[in-house]
């Protein structure tokens, strides 16, 4: 089963980011190889929706975190190898008849480009096989007792092919002759091409595991605990946004009896950052990756959908409000399909007037509350909607981010508290900025 998400969610959470913006992907992209970076990107685009798959990947990354080993191969070997293996044209196959004086002369003066590329590819694979042979032997005892065991065996099955056993038992030399190049080329490019591609994929996976393990160790990220799906529970303990410097952590527990989180708070109080922190952690958890928190437990979800930075679509005639309506409709359709989903909506229906926004916020939130297998976090400035919802549903968790006033200036704690905020400091901020005085008296030089 595929994990449900979409471009809007990926953009909202800044998974890949835009130019000049920090992304979640770049936190983890310490891959040594181009293939590893591409595989990592694919993992980000396709989170996992099965507990066993998540648990296995998480276990492998933790295994390498515990070992503290570095990637055992030079990154430049792989571009050479990929280019070499991509050429399977039979016309480029080296034969004994080609080993003539002319070719030997061109080879000696470095003008036989095709042969040089083949020779470099053969030597690159020789070095990869030799170094991986050493590495796999080094970790064999512990790897065979770890979640990495299947992948270790897969890599070893290629390394142990008898046809090249004697060759890779010794380090790759800096040069080899035509006959040896031709013999190994026949093995590498034609007899065992698919096995070597399988080996490369396994090495790229190893690259990703080691890179992510290094990030977990360096940043002190933790690996979430997976709960049974049917418990429909997520517990965040001191979760924070991985890109916010000196971020204030917050804790939140979501269960069927409190599956709706109704979040209020003034502008700049930190609502959007908090919601992104929760969604990013849950997204990473479904990849089997470590998260920015002290502790986290979660029931596997079928997907994550957000509505945070929702654009209008003037080319299609959509106002911002209509874009919001369509977004909530998409969420409702997923709920109607009996999916266990995690939803985040920042400022529900802010594209319409206050009366409609109030009525719509109450109606939609109350309707989502009837689906205890889904989780819905909604933020709003309309505190009155919270007062109404208190009397309609008993499974709504009301929380807010407070604003304190010190010497007439707002101070934000960024710490969740229970209840609905009464903070209304918009005019205080406007007054402090002197906007009305400027409009009345003109800008002072």
Describe this structure in words.
By secondary structure, the chain is of the alpha/beta class. It folds into two domains: 189 residues, MutS, DNA mismatch repair protein, Chain A, domain 3 (Orthogonal Bundle); 217 residues, Rossmann fold (3-Layer(aba) Sandwich), CATH 3.40.50.300. Helix content is 49%, strand content 13%. Helix 13 links the parallel strand 6 and strand 7. The protein is elongated and about 90 Å long. It starts with 6 loop residues before the first helix and ends with a helix.
User: Which fold name is given in CATH as the topology of the largest domain?
Assistant: Rossmann fold
The largest sheet, given as strand count, sense and whether it forms a barrel, is: 6 strands, mixed
- The CATH architecture term of the largest domain is 3-Layer(aba) Sandwich
Tally of contiguous helical segments: 17
Strands, count: 12
Name of the top-level CATH class of the largest domain: Alpha Beta
Distance between the termini: 64 Å
Any idea what the CATH superfamily of the largest domain is called? P-loop containing nucleotide triphosphate hydrolases
SSE pattern, N- to C-terminal? HHHHHHHHHHHEEEEHEEHEHEHEEEEHH
On the 0 to 100 scale, the average pLDDT is: 89
In the predicted model, the low-confidence regions spanning at least 5 consecutive residues are none
């Amino acid at each position: 089963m595929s994990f449900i998400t979409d471009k809007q969610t990926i953009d909202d959470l800044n998974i890949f980011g835009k130019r000049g913006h920090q992304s979640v992907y770049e936190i983890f992209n310490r891959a040594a190889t181009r293939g590893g970076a591409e595989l990592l990107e694919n993992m980000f685009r396709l989170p996992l929706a099965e507990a066993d798959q998540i648990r296995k990947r998480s276990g492998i990354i933790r295994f390498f975190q515990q070992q503290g080993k570095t990637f055992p191969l030079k990154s430049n070997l792989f571009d050479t190898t990929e280019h070499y293996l991509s050429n399977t044209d039979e016309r480029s196959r080296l034969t004994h008849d080609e080993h003539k004086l002319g070719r030997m002369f061109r080879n000696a003066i470095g003008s036989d480009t095709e042969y040089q590329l083949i020779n470099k590819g053969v030597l690159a694979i020789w070095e990869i096989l030799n170094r991986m042979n050493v590495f796999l032997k080094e970790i064999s005892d512990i790897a065979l007792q770890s979640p990495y065991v299947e992948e270790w065996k897969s890599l070893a099955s290629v390394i142990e092919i008898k046809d090249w056993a004697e060759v890779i038992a010794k380090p790759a030399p800096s040069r080899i002759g035509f006959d040896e190049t031709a013999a190994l080329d026949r093995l590498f490019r034609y007899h065992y091409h698919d096995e070597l591609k399988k080996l490369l994929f396994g090495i790229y996976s190893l690259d990703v595991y080691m890179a992510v393990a290094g990030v977990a160790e360096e940043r002190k990220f933790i690996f979430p605990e997976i709960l049974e799906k049917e418990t429909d529970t997520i517990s965040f303990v001191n979760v924070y946004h991985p890109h916010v410097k000196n971020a204030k952590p917050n804790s939140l527990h979501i269960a069927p009896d409190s599956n709706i989180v109704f979040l209020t708070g003034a502008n700049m109080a930190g609502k959007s950052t908090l919601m992104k922190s929760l969604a990013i952690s849950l997204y990473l958890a479904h990849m089997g990756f470590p998260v920015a928190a002290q502790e986290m437990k979660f029931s596997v979800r079928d997907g994550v959908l957000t509505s945070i930075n929702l654009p209008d679509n003037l080319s299609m005639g959509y106002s911002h409000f209509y874009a919001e309506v369509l977004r909530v409709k998409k969420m409702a359709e997923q709920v109607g399909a009996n999916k266990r989903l995690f939803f985040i909506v920042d400022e529900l229906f802010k594209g319409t007037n206050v009366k409609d926004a109030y009525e719509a916020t109450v109606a939609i939130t109350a309707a989502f509350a009837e689906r205890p297998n889904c989780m819905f976090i909604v933020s709003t400035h309309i505190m009155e909607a919270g007062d109404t919802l208190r009397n309609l549903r008993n499974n709504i968790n009301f929380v807010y981010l407070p604003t304190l006033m010190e010497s007439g200036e707002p101070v934000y704690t960024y710490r969740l508290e229970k209840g609905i905020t009464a903070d209304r400091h918009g005019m205080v901020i406007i007054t402090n900025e002197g906007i009305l005085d400027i409009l009345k008296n003109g800008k002072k030089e």
